[in-house]
Write a structure and sequence with these properties.
Order of helices and strands: HEEEEEEEEHH
Structural class: alpha+beta
Number of helices: 3
Largest sheet: 4 strands, antiparallel
Oligomer: single chain
Length: 233
Amino acid sequence: STMLLLLLLLLSPVGCPKTEPLSGSSQEPLFRGADRYDFAVVIPAGATECFWQFAHQSGSFFFSYEVQRATGIGNSRNILATASDPRGVQLGVSQHVRGQINFPTKETGFYQLCLDNQENHFGFVQVYLNFGVYYEGFDMEKKEPEERKELNDTLEAIGASIHKLQIHLFHMWRFYNFARMRKGADSFLLEANYNYVNWWSMAQSCVIVLSGVLQLYFLKSLFNGQPSNRQKC
């Protein structure tokens, strides 16, 4: 379902509605987008891929990435990642194999995340992404003052504890994704090294066999007698 929501988010706004629209007067059907995503994306050589995530005010936005593999000449694994607010103001930049961009959401709207594969001109890169937004506060704004008074201290304490536990579990999920990013990158690196060693060993074996054949050929040519120019009686 997460991948389905992402595909709907990336489609043209003419064909499908946006998640969490800023205006409630739209006639399009509404649906709520997920607060976080984790997936891998392939970016072609010299191309740029952008994603949009809706966030409310007073939230905490997190964005982390890891380049799992790169192809082509040069084989550069660095990628340029940028994050911008709904007005287009750049909030963070990272240009490494892996990185994080975290910032508070000071206004409500769609935040833009872009990945630029400018250093790889002849090959694609596969990047694992983990981004979204979470809210630390215990939301009681929508409750009426009378309803708030009816809640006793025990229920409020239970609610605050549950919310704190959810935040801790959420951060554990983030750290788990960091480990999964690294594990995926290491797996692709081991596979590339394995293929490199196999091809290099095969090439060296061919060179050794060829050199042996050439040595035998030249040794044999040394023992071949020269034809005599004297005429027989």
